Amino acid sequence: TCAASVCSAMARHAGPRLPLIVKNLIPMLNSVFDSQRITTTAFFAELLNSNVVNDLILLETMMDNMMGRQKDTCTLVRMLALRGLGNIASGSPEKVRKHGAKLLASMVNGMDDKDDPHNLVALEAMSSLSKLLDHVEERDIQSMLLHIAIRIRPFFDSEQPDLRQSSIVLFGNLTKFSEGNCEVFFEQILNGLVTLLLHLQDPKPEVVKACKFALRMCGPNMGCEGLCDMFLNHLREDRSLHYGEFMNNVCKHLMQSYPEMLNRLISTNLFYFKSNWVDIRAAAPMFIGFLVLHVDEDQCQQVDLDQLISGE
């Protein structure tokens, strides 16, 4: 983009002049004109991608100004402000740890943005949060882990592929912090498991790639070595997947390790019988078939056949 090119050039060649430029631009963040606030926020967001703001002791000033834009009336300004805060992960990663709690709070607020009809702010919040997670203190994310996991779950089935992709990648990244909340987060993994497995048949390759990543990340937290090995070996990015054979084996491990989950897994799959995506609509009954195939006779008695036959 134009802002990125300008900032890159200025970071390289105009270092000593940047503090004065930034000082003169800060009042534009409160301009009555949306266009001026958008342009200034975009410029600052890209500048935060460079370590030069840290060298010139501008980081805190610019970060505070980006946080101050979170209540801006313009959706694009709010989105760009979050992008700037996320860019600190690449421009000044060592500072993310220091300001982790504030940065995470900004991302959570972005995901909860109530005036975001096209989810632009939420999308930016999820993408930026994934960038920040490698650098934050574990204690800062622990308190927000559950809220974030629950908040992003509806995006897994969004009509917008970039929202599906970003939310699923973020979910995979969150699993790195689940140890302290193992039981609580395990519940979130179980809530998302059917969706992630079905979206391996997503029409968009980038969403399939995100699901593979998230399932590989979830595997070690599931307490089932066979399932973990399957996810790690069969869901590598460079490996093509024989979906039917894979799901047959996944269901075998699921029913060996979590037979009590049968009805819950079936109920979630039934929801996808009405999916807008034909391959996912086809995968759901196959998933149920493999579950029933591998469950023992006692557990099979629990299946509500009327519900299955009616498909609701």
TrEMBL record:
Protein's name in the database: MROH1 protein
Organism expressing this protein natively: Ibidorhyncha struthersii
Alphabetized InterPro entries for the sequence: ARM-like (IPR011989), ARM-type_fold (IPR016024), HEAT_Maestro (IPR055406), Maestro_heat-like_prot (IPR045206)
Lineage, broadest ranks: Eukaryota, Metazoa, Chordata, Craniata, Vertebrata
Listed PANTHER family: MAESTRO HEAT-LIKE REPEAT-CONTAINING PROTEIN FAMILY MEMBER 1 (PTHR23120:SF44), MAESTRO-RELATED HEAT DOMAIN-CONTAINING (PTHR23120)
Any GO CC annotation of this UniProt entry: cytoplasm
Gene that encodes it: Mroh1_1
Span of domain Maestro/Maestro-like HEAT-repeats: 64-310
Transmembrane residue ranges: none
